[in-house]
């Protein structure tokens, strides 16, 4: 077959334009494609929820890619091993209660699971504002291309509607900060120093709806609560993503 450059371009533009038009209105927008966001998106998608994942970077996976200090291994505790099994992520027992997995495999399989479940990814896209109307609820997001932000260009954004937003933006808790700065009754206490066992024990409890329509998960949940960080142990992140999905499903269904 003769290669046709125009056909290639048309294929990409027509398919992605169709997807973007469809996802202007969705059920759940997950902001941040780290481990908690990926787990949340995959588990919601498995239940038939229309999910869009917005990631400001080119790559998916957040801090999980790098493992610990660029050694591509992560640790997961016993409580979260069932989620490794759910997503077919191989692991090895290290000592009682702790398992080691490949960081690259974990990201790849979480991403594949989210795709298989029907979630759509919008990478190189950042959230620059939220939509809050008379009902005092986050009902949409204002989005733009990441290169626009990086270049400091003045380019007007576009808006998508969603029933729920999940702030999975990690340590920065971007959406939570945004709601707080726009007058929402939200306080972001800020992240505490390293204390892995406490952070892991508390993260699921901190995963909650902090403002109508806005759920925080992963390190964003700990940052909002003023909780500690935990380093390259990721069981709590997966469990937090699962908890965020469960909270949304309980409310939506």
Structure, described:
With 253 residues, this protein is of the alpha/beta class. Helix content is 40%, strand content 25%. It is built from nine helices and eleven strands. It has helices at residues 5-22, 35-46, 81-86, 103-116, 146-151, 174-181, 196-206, 219-225, 235-252, and strands at residues 25-31, 51-55, 73-77, 91-95, 98-102, 120-123, 125-132, 138-145, 158-167, 208-211, 214-216.
Which helices and strands appear, and what pairs or packs with what?
Layout: H1 5-22, E1 25-31, H2 35-46, E2 51-55, E3 73-77, H3 81-86, E4 91-95, E5 98-102, H4 103-116, E6 120-123, E7 125-132, E8 138-145, H5 146-151, E9 158-167, H6 174-181, H7 196-206, E10 208-211, E11 214-216, H8 219-225, H9 235-252
Helix pairs in contact: 2-4, 2-9, 7-8, 7-9
CATH topology: FAD/NAD(P)-binding domain
Which series of helices and strands comes N to C? HEHEEHEEHEEEHEHHEEHH
- Calculate the mean pLDDT score and round it: 96
End-to-end gap: 49 Å
The tally of domains stands at 1
CATH fourth-tier homologous superfamily: FAD/NAD(P)-binding domain
Number of strands: 11
Structural class: alpha/beta
Low-confidence stretches: none
Binned strand content: 25-35%
Alpha-carbon Rg, integer: 18 Å
What is the top-level CATH class? Alpha Beta
The CATH architecture can be given as 3-Layer(bba) Sandwich
Shape: globular
Helix content: 25-40%
Summarize the structure.
The chain has 253 residues and is α/β, with parallel strands linked by helices. The chain has helices at residues 5-22, 35-46, 81-86, 103-116, 146-151, 174-181, 196-206, 219-225, 235-252; strands at residues 25-31, 51-55, 73-77, 91-95, 98-102, 120-123, 125-132, 138-145, 158-167, 208-211, 214-216.
């Amino acid at each position: 077959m003769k290669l046709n450059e125009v056909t290639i371009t048309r294929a990409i533009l027509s398919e992605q334009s169709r997807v973007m038009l469809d996802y202007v209105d969705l059920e759940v927008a997950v902001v941040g494609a780290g481990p908690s966001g990926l787990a949340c998106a995959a588990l919601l998608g498995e239940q038939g929820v229309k999910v869009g994942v917005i990631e400001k970077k080119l790559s998916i996976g957040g801090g999980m890619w790098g493992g610990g200090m660029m050694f591509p291994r992560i640790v997961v505790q016993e409580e979260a091993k069932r989620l490794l099994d759910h997503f077919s992520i191989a692991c090895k027992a290290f000592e009682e209660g702790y398992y080691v997995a490949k960081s690259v495999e974990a990201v790849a399989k979480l991403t594949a699971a989210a795709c298989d479940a029907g979630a759509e990814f919008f990478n190189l896209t950042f959230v620059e504002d939220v939509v809050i109307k008379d009902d005092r609820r986050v009902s949409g997001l204002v989005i733009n291309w990441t290169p626009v932000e990086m270049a400091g260009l003045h380019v007007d954004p576009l808006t998508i509607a969603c029933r729920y937003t999940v702030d999975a933006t990690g340590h920065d808790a971007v959406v939570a900060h945004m709601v707080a700065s726009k007058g929402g009754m939200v306080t972001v206490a800020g992240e505490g120093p390293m204390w892995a066992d406490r952070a892991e024990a508390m993260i699921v409890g901190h995963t909650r709806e902090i403002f109508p329509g806005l759920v925080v998960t992963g390190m964003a949940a700990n940052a909002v609560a003023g909780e500690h960080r935990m380093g390259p142990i990721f069981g709590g992140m997966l469990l937090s993503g699962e908890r965020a999905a469960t909270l949304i499903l309980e409310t939506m269904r």
